[in-house]
């Protein structure tokens, strides 16, 4: 429901806000004034003003007053000028406080990097162990994954490097038989059973303890960073439950990843450490600067890509990203990556998840299949977004949404049953992508590297020429084709369920499968038809011309770009993820092509689409406002609407205010001189008004329902028999942001985006503006001067109930 509120009033502790809001120094501050209710937007201008006031207090100043006499033939004005100068000598305590305030931001970044890196390392290790637990167990140490178990074995051979006596599958452990139909069926059954158990635990924990721990979290993070309040979404329980259930969800074998939810986990860490410093806990704008840096740290530990994480935060999630946030994001991402590298969860002493080392350069002619992969990525992104949004909308509007546990169990069961027979869907998605990215060297034993070798070949190991595909390659191709169809379909129904679910890895898997298939096809064409004109110039017989793993990497980037619409950060993440720095041009070509193709069918990526589906109030800075309307066309009240809900500066009673609050749902009210003139004086927030009256009734004697509320500097002249009036000038914003009724809506929308307003007031002047006499300040609130009449324009402020499971 659209609501109306004014530019937020300054906090009780401010001397003057950034827009010139004078404060009353005589009254005691009202508690909780200046805070925000749940599911409301913050006011960036007020938060900036609050931070400016905090700087004044942390770095004290001396105020020197002197008087200037100005004479003219008509009047004499006394002006008071306050000259601000720095103290010549500060106490040691003040210096310490100033240093602590200056360094608190870097301390928070350090803590975020350490905690998010540690959690990411623990999650990686736990996922590896629990994923392998579905197939077997290590007898020497049950907490070892399959790979770790065989590392410690001295009986592992090169040909059977994945087999060792210490690791046994469940059928072999229970029946003593590792082969045969009975062993296969038993392993199949236990694989499905473990998957169902993990997913049931994940959805149950989310449903009972932390409903906000479900999903990717990136759409909500984008909305929160734009200024929206969702209390509890970044809380301690959400952090704990999301960390645990993320391990369970990924280990269940569902078509989802942990990379997106790790951004949510990192932002929860950032919010946790913000509460330790009043600089951030009491200022929502400063808090969002920390959360932007935390999002960068999340991507840094998700992919081992610190620079890509900073660019991801800047390009994809952040709404307000000043230069100092860029440096702090870089520092947080650096600390997080260093912490993850110290834990070494991948066991290869590398930070990157899919390290590759190709020995063949790419050729200009290969740009054609790279661009075709970009087209495929754009089409896949469009298909996925439309199908997934349609399914999620159906989930919201039908009985399906009432049974989230049953939905998760059903999708998990279908996924496990269909995934087990295919070796490329049975393994974890990260392992699948790693195998698809790899180049076929002499030591590879994968089916994808089953080429027919020339016995007369005498070349270095790292320069293996193109060879004809063997039966293992052709067998792998049709298994990959089935895996591609399976991943495309099942991911549509998986993303958006009530468990932690990331989209990066499933999208990359779809692209990597398609890219590997295309790469093998191009490789075999180059081998068998090297005399074709397209191959003649760069592919000679006996040469290593085509690298299928590179095509898988390009396809992964294309599909991820088609779904998320990322470009710059995507390319940087991909080359950091793989270490393939010299392949930036193919990655750029595929990323740009996929974005162009996907944008031809719709500008919104998957995260923006889910923001719209959930009804979050998000004004995307990249959207264009094409409607040719004026502010007068959208302001409230419109013609035939009830009169504008306003307060007068000195004639409204407490009972009138409480009735107005009860009968309306606006988030604030203009304060005018009188209902006849409607000359704008200022704006007061609904929440501040409610808290102030409640506080006055409890602590101030003589305040009753018939007490007059006044917002002027001096109390109005009232009969002696009237009860004590209530002065609320402290919560009045004397400088609300206003535009005229003929302002184009395109300008108004830009103002909301760039200034971060909650709302704007539309004024219509009844007569020419009053003239300020030179040398004297203009008087506010005089009844004899005509001024602008006020209306509301309502944008970017929505209220909606919290999501329920």
Automatic annotation (TrEMBL):
Domain of life: Eukaryota
Name of the protein this chain belongs to: H(+)/Cl(-) exchange transporter 4
Native source species: Nibea albiflora (Yellow drum)
Gene name in the database record: CLCN4
